[in-house]
Specification:
By secondary structure, the protein is an alpha/beta fold. The chain has helices at about 10-20, 25-35, 60-70, 95-105, 120-135, 145-150, 170-180, 195-200, 210-215, 235-245, 255-265, 285-290, 315-330, 335-350, 360-365, and strands spanning about 40-50, 75, 80-90, 115, 135-140, 160-165, 190, 220, 245-250, 275-280, 295-300, 370-375, 375-380, 390, 395-400, 405-410.
Length: about 425
């Protein structure tokens, strides 16, 4: 049990849960005394997909968390030094598992703050568990619409304890349209949208791709939702060929795209541009595709060329990326920046909270966040809806640079302060 404001968000619910069972009595008493410890500790639960089809998002976890733990060993709050302890658990790329480990972190580990990253499959169930238990929660790596509306969010009310920073579908659509703006490419697009939270949001007639593409003069062929981990994309390929699609887009997990792209080659589908969200973020995926990986394109949330630096370590985006490459002998990946930024925000919140023993005070500190991070500004006062703030987005292409695949920013119309590194090359 912790000291709380009687009217704070989620307090009555969590107090009930915490005090309903005597098994929690001993840990609860310890909470009362920690503020008097020589170096008190704030517990932060962390959930991400270390295994399963989304594991690429967590590839850099060990490196980032090792560096973060050093930076979080002494955070000043109201004149006293606090240590931030990070307890990390694997969602296994499964929404049910994500909810389960989030509940464990909240009710068994008794974390003070919970954070999560990497697609709605992880972010949403973790946020839902935090909301129902009144636990302060910060998430990222998921477009804000599937996060907010996927959780049945009401723009007029928002949520009580759960906050999110990332870009939105309007940003990725704008970046893709800018990427495709080429007089040599027809405006016929084939859409690949799975039957999951991301796919349903991207393919939504109003909030997703169909309406803005139509408004921009593009014809979208959408054969309907396919089941994730499908082994046959013949129907989609036939529909795209019949429509004369010169662009293929969508949001897919890596195994699904690999299957589609292999079958597309076998069945003679030859688009001029292929721009896929999620699946094409990772160098390992591109390497696995061999020569057919070069020329594919995707959104770019973060890169070594982003002009931002860490509020925790003063590292530039390039410093962080090159440090990872040197330490692991692996190419940099986009989630590195956002995983680091997640803990930048946590540290800033801990510094500013009026009372670290009161979840309501921590939520107030999250709500009041206005800072610069390694992925850009994080400021929840700016919307677009309550509990959400946006970060910049550009787009680019995997190109052969010095004999290796490299993700090159080829359009920055949606975020002009992020420099372009080359021009799009048609397939």
């Amino acid at each position: 049990m912790r000291f709380r404001n009687s009217g704070g968000p989620g307090v009555s619910r969590r107090n009930f849960i915490r005090t309903a069972g005597t098994v929690l009595a001993a840990p609860a008493i310890l909470r009362w005394t920690r503020a008097y410890a020589q170096t008190p500790t704030i517990k932060v639960g962390h959930v991400s997909p270390v295994t399963g089809p989304l594991a690429g998002f967590a590839e850099a976890n060990d490196y980032i968390l090792e560096g973060i733990r050093k930076s979080l060993s002494a955070i000043d709050n109201n004149g006293k030094s606090w240590t931030i302890e990070v307890i990390s658990k694997d969602s296994q790329s499964n929404p049910n598992r994500a909810a389960e480990v989030a509940a464990d972190l909240i009710l068994k580990d008794e974390v003070d703050i919970i954070v999560a990253a990497s697609t709605p499959d992880t972010v949403n169930p973790v946020s839902d568990q935090a909301e129902v238990n009144g636990t302060p929660c910060i998430t990222t790596d998921c477009p804000w619409q599937p996060y907010f509306f996927g959780r049945n969010g009401n723009p007029e009310q928002g949520f009580e304890t759960t906050y999110h920073f990332f870009w939105g579908l309007e940003d990725v659509i704008g970046a893709f349209l800018s990427l495709w703006d080429n007089p040599n490419v027809g405006k016929k697009v084939g859409g690949l949208f799975p039957n999951d939270a991301d796919g349903n949001a991207w393919g939504d007639p109003e909030r997703g791709f169909p309406k803005p593409l139509s408004d921009a003069g593009y014809s979208l062929t959408d054969p309907g939702r396919y089941q994730p981990m499908s082994d046959d994309f013949s129907a989609q390929i036939s529909a795209f060929k019949a429509a004369g699609a010169e662009i293929v887009t969508g949001n897919m997990i890596p195994p699904d795209f690999a299957t589609f792209w292999s079958q597309a080659g076998q069945q003679g589908l030859k688009p001029r541009i292929v721009t896929i969200g999620k699946a094409l973020l990772f160098p390992s995926v591109i390497a696995s595709l061999g020569e057919r990986g070069i020329g594919l394109s995707s959104e770019i949330w973060w890169s070594p060329n982003h002009p931002f630096s860490s509020s925790l370590t003063d590292e530039s985006a390039r410093d962080l990326a090159e440090g990872y490459v040197k330490a692991t002998n692996r190419p940099w990946t986009q989630p590195i920046g956002f995983k680091h930024a997640l803990f930048e925000v946590v540290a800033d919140v801990v510094k500013r909270s009026a009372d670290l023993d009161d979840p309501a005070a921590i939520v107030e500190a999250i709500k009041a966040t206005s800072m610069k991070t390694i992925v850009g500004a994080v400021d929840w006062s700016k919307g677009p809806v309550k509990n959400v703030t946006k970060t910049p987005l550009v787009a680019g292409q995997w190109q052969n640079v010095n004999g290796k695949p490299d993700l090159v920013i080829t359009t920055n119309k949606t975020a002009p302060d992020i420099p372009v590194g080359g021009e799009l090359i048609l397939l």
